[in-house]
Automatic annotation (TrEMBL):
The gene is modA. One of its GO terms (biological process) is molybdate ion transport. This is Molybdate ABC transporter substrate-binding protein. Belongs to the bacterial solute-binding protein ModA family. Keywords: Metal-binding, Molybdenum, Signal. The keyword Metal-binding applies. One of its GO terms (molecular function) is molybdate ion binding. Molybdate binds at residues 40, 68, 177. The complex is composed of two ATP-binding proteins (ModC), two transmembrane proteins (ModB) and a solute-binding protein (ModA). Residues 1-30 form the signal peptide. It comes from the Bacteria. It comes from Cupriavidus metallidurans. Pfam families: SBP_bac_11 (PF13531).
Length: 258
């Protein structure tokens, strides 16, 4: 396995610097393809990158995961990226407005669902969104709505039920969906909102309490950036994600067709 994964970094400047150093490093490969992808895609895209490299041995895929809006801002500020994959349409819309992605290359490639999870050993008996307003539920994790797609979906669903203010008062905002998952898995909160695919990777530590209805479909767009110096390879990777083989990988990790 030759692809490299950059860790979640909390400061845009740090990520930009790390990416710059990575891409500037000497390589025996013809191209380092930098793919910035939403945190919820971590497991699936690691497998996609591995299989893509196997089929394209002259290309090394460099993966950068984080909150979609944070990744978008990194690209806007000049951090290297050839492909951007977002967990919602809003972050990709912002990228288009900033003219950092090629609009014609934008495609929806996956769908997901927001779920409310609790620790596997929870005794609170949470079975509805309204249960989050109970006095014995003290802390609820969700992505920061200003920068994390799952947070935007969460806020929208709770507002539709008239519950946002009550739940936000107990809120523990996370920097990305995997941080929300970790809070619940470690028992640091009573419940948390994540995507169904995230909950599925820790069945021994968390369980789904509620499948959250969303008025806005949870779809994932992908696009080639305007700054790429290797449009052919970037387009090839996007096509691979959209291919039957790529879709099979995504399905294996619980993603649905868009």
């Amino acid at each position: 396995m030759t692809f490299r994964t950059l860790p979640f970094l909390r400061r845009t400047a740090c990520v930009g610097a790390a990416l710059a150093l990575t891409v500037a490093a000497p390589s025996a490969f013809a191209a380092d393809l930098v793919v910035s992808a939403a945190a919820s895609l971590t497991n699936a895209f690691k497998t996609l990158a591995e299989q893509y490299e196997h089929a394209h041995p002259d290309t090394k895929v460099v993966l950068n995961f984080g909150a979609s809006d944070v990744l978008m801002q990194q690209i806007v500020k000049g951090a290297p990226a050839d492909v951007f994959a977002s967990a919602d349409q809003t972050a990709m819309d912002k990228a288009e407005a900033e003219k950092v992605v090629q609009s014609a290359s934008r495609k929806d490639f996956a769908a997901n669902q927001v779920v409310l999870i609790v620790p596997q050993d929870s005794k609170l008996g949470i079975g509805s969104l309204k249960d989050l307003t109970r006095a014995d539920v003290k802390r609820v994790a969700y992505g920061n709505p200003s920068s994390v797609p799952v947070g935007r979906y969460t806020k929208g669903a709770l507002e539709a039920e008239g519950l946002w203010d009550a739940v936000a008062a107990k809120g523990v905002p996370a920097q990305n969906v995997r941080q929300s998952l970790d809070y619940v898995a470690r028992g640091e909160v009573d419940a948390g909102f994540v995507f169904a695919t995230d909950a599925a990777i820790m069945p021994e530590k968390v369980k789904v309490a509620v499948r959250v209805p969303n008025r806005t479909p949870v779809t994932y767009p992908i696009a080639v950036t305007t700054q790429t110096k290797q449009a052919q390879q970037a387009t090839s990777f996007v096509q691979y994600v959209l291919s039957a083989e790529g879709q099979a990988v995504l399905a294996k990790f619980g993603f649905q067709k868009p």
